[in-house]
Write a structure and sequence with these properties.
With 107 residues, the protein is an alpha+beta fold. Helix content is 24%, strand content 21%.
């Protein structure tokens, strides 16, 4: 879960600007997080000049049976509408892994 320290937050909007998922907006000079839209990627935490954002985990969820899961997913990260170069590296590596496992890659 993403938490906003309202004592530190100045409402500068930096977090809102860097969030590619539109999960943060500034209201009454304080950042507000749409927890349903937030993917917990953490880019806003790095982008906050005041250190007002913090990621923390909720209680552990029960184990999930992964035996029926297939494929490899790669998150294609964008900043300011431009694909982040590391995404291409991840796609290359995932393609090699998918070949070894006999599965598909989705980005």
């Amino acid at each position: 879960m993403l938490n906003v320290d309202t004592e530190k937050c100045t409402g500068c909007g930096e977090c809102e600007e860097v969030c590619t998922f539109g999960a943060i907006f500034v209201e009454d000079d304080v950042a507000v997080v749409d927890q349903d839209a937030c993917t917990l990627c953490g880019i806003c935490v790095d982008g906050c000049p005041e250190g007002a954002l913090e990621l923390y985990s909720e209680e552990s969820l029960p184990a999930t049976d992964l035996s029926s899961w297939r494929g490899i997913w790669v998150v294609a990260e964008c900043r300011s509408g431009v694909l982040v170069p590391v995404t291409l590296e991840l796609l290359t590596k995932s393609r090699g892994l998918a070949g070894e496992l006999g599965t598909d890659v989705t980005a």
